Amino acid sequence: MSSLRIHFLTQGVHTQGTYFRFHNLAVGLTKLGQDVTVFGCDWNPASKEREEIRDGVQYHIVPEFQGNSVFGSACHPLTAIRRCLVDYPPCDVAHLFQPFPSAALPWYWNLPKKAKLLFYDWDDLWIGGLVTSQPKSFREYWLRFVVNYLEQQLPQRAVHVTTCSQFLANLASKRNASQVSVIHNGLWPFVIPDQTAARESLGLDSQALYVGFMGRTCAELSWCFEALENNLHRHSSLRLALCGPPDNCLDSVPKNVRKRIDFLGTLPPLKTRNFAAALDLGLLPLEDNSFNQSRFPIKYAEYMAAATPVLCSDIGECANLSDGMPWVIKAGKTKKQWLDAFENAINLMLMGQLPTVDINTVVENFSWNLISKKLLEIYWATITNIK
């Protein structure tokens, strides 16, 4: 089987959010012998158009235009037009990630002339999911208008839609997608560091009982603070470690609770492995809403990659995948159920009765190598069917 030439079109190339999805898929496909180029833009109007190699993957990066305060980075029309002027080489697959015009316009305008297949990847519900409040500025109106149009139209424009969840797969089908496949987020297996060494590398207490939260999506972070506060008097060694949320996330936390929190700010991707390994329990609280139904948090697998059990709300794709993995402690669908499950999990840890993570099962289910292989098989099957 010959290799495919694959273009990923993305809104941005900064190491956050969907970056960890498309970048790891690009790495996995490259390891499988495919020719992958990621086309994206940065958020610096003063930068230059350039080529970069990241983890063996070719990146073509263009700067955005000034005017973010008016249009926003993802929906700037001049940035989208600039990206239409890029000389995209012919390819077998042009795979668009996320419903933003800075990548969607060249995907729709340029790539049909250059690509055999147009794929679209949908990994979050934006309008009616992440974006629910009424717009108050032109920038918010513009984002809502453009992204809503693209979320409605892109599923039917692509020959094949990939999603991170069954929720989005069903929604794509309702929006007239011809073919849909669920491609989960995953992990790269690594040598798990000793917990004591991991804590020492991050300046954490070697003797504490640590629960932890990592990630930038922190709408339910207050649940973690409340869970810690409810259990302060029960467990004197209990501490909460945080990485990823903004610095102001602790502004409203009571002082007695704040004293039990280790806030590490933003960690580089490799250090998040030490963070996960330093924990006794990873925390994944999810409110029951359309946004959480649609997404599949990368940290779900990343906690387990470090052999750390996870306390996870029984919501969305996480709920669909947790059966058969007893180290994923199901925490119900409401905040109260999650808080009750937190207390029960702490008691189980103190008694040494928390299930051990079977890392082999985790790798079999969530390895980026296997996920990338599945995506490659979908590409080939689609090409064969079209022929």
Q: List low-confidence stretches.
A: none
What profile does the largest beta sheet have?
A: 8 strands, mixed
The structural class is alpha/beta
Q: Output the radius of gyration.
A: 21 Å
| 3D shape | globular
CATH class of the largest domain: Alpha Beta
Portion in beta strands: 15-25%
Widest sheet, order of strands: 3-4-2-1-5-6-7-8
Count the helices. How many? Answer: 16
Mean pLDDT: 95
CATH architecture of the largest domain: 3-Layer(aba) Sandwich
CATH superfamily of the largest domain: Glycogen Phosphorylase B
What is CATH's topology name of the largest domain?
Rossmann fold
Distance from first to last alpha carbon? 16 Å
- Number of separate domains: 2
Helix content: 40-55%
How many DSSP-defined strands?
14
SSE arrangement, N to C: EHEEEHHEHEHEHEHEHEHEHEHHEHEHHH
Give the key terms.
single chain; 387 residues; alpha/beta; Rossmann fold; 2 domains; 8-stranded mixed beta sheet; 6-stranded parallel beta sheet; 16 helices; globular
Give me a quick take on this structure.
The protein has helices at 19-31, 68-71, 77-84, 101-109, 138-157, 166-174, 195-202, 221-230, 255-258, 269-278, 290-294, 298-305, 316-321, 335-350, 359-366, 368-386; strands at 5-12, 35-41, 50-54, 57-62, 91-97, 115-122, 160-163, 180-182, 209-214, 238-243, 261-263, 281-284, 310-312, 328-330. It is an alpha/beta fold.
Mind explaining what this structure looks like?
This protein is an alpha/beta fold. The chain has helices at residues 19-31, 68-71, 77-84, 101-109, 138-157, 166-174, 195-202, 221-230, 255-258, 269-278, 290-294, 298-305, 316-321, 335-350, 359-366, 368-386, and strands at 5-12, 35-41, 50-54, 57-62, 91-97, 115-122, 160-163, 180-182, 209-214, 238-243, 261-263, 281-284, 310-312, 328-330. It is globular. The chain starts with a strand and ends with a helix.
